[in-house]
Write a structure and sequence with these properties.
Length: about 350
Amino acid sequence: MKRSKLLVRAWLLFIGYCTLSAVVYVPALLLLQKGILLHVPWILSVEKSLSQDGFGNPVSTWLRPGCIEYDPELIYRPVIGTCQFNEIEFNTSLTFTDEGRVTGDRPAGTGIAVIGDSHAMGWGVNDQQAFPAVLQRLSGRPVYNLGVASYGTVRELIRLEQSGLADRIDTVIIQYCNNDLPENLRFDTASKKQLYDRIFGQFTPHAAAGKGREAQTGKVLYILKGYWSALDAPLRSLADRLRRKNFEPHYGPLIATLGKHAAVLRGKRVIVFYSNSRGQKYRNFPSGRDPQIPDVYFVDLDLGVTDYYNLDNHPTPAGQKKIAERLYAYLQQVQPPAPGAGQSGPATTAPAGRP
């Protein structure tokens, strides 16, 4: 009897949860389609879940004509000039020169190169809000933002090699992201033609027509998938806050990638930190000097979900500022190798006033 009562109660709770999810799902979807965020916990988590799964308000894409161009080694690279990207949470302009995204008027002296993906490039913030620009103002040193959305560490290092900046910098900051791993494992052996077709094939009229046809079909499936996103939204939101990723599978391919491109890093202080989508953390990210490549240092900047947009996966202006401030503080703890020292030698404290 007790067991049957428990089953009935569990069933009633399940029905109640499904009903409440449906009640939340409809206004959340309508609000998202109108570009409105409602900061009510469950509705916001449903809007976030719907957005992540491709429902509701369409988001701007980095990979579009006029913003990227073909590169034989990198597949694509930013077009020199300005592109506008607008979403629910931001309206931004991204400006690029042949030395990367602009960071403002650069001071004289030996500089810092920042490489990474969209988190380093500064997706979701304007030019002067991206952490490389903030770091330049804090340090009083030239900072070159070579970050490009969707690059892994392999292409980030190739872009650094192409930049011609090696003789003008003594520090390289690498922003690592969880999705760098596939590229670090396979980019060197991947078919460049397939990669090209995957990126630039979507720009063809045939591809655009296909997407239009898809949008007109499967409405029932669309609704069901959206409702499923509403059902799991609270659990997904909780998981984003509590889950700690395992860095161990990433470490070996990252070190191997750095080793393959050792020439451009030789004689440089290399700082590696991570910024993952939605602020997800690693439970075992290394700390301090790397035992295999002595002038590489790992640092966890302790970023969290509050440093990222509610819907978008990238740092807010405040999150970018926090990254810059914590990197600036860390740079004062280790000094670049002495000229001609190579990738070896003990770490020393940086002189005061020169991070």
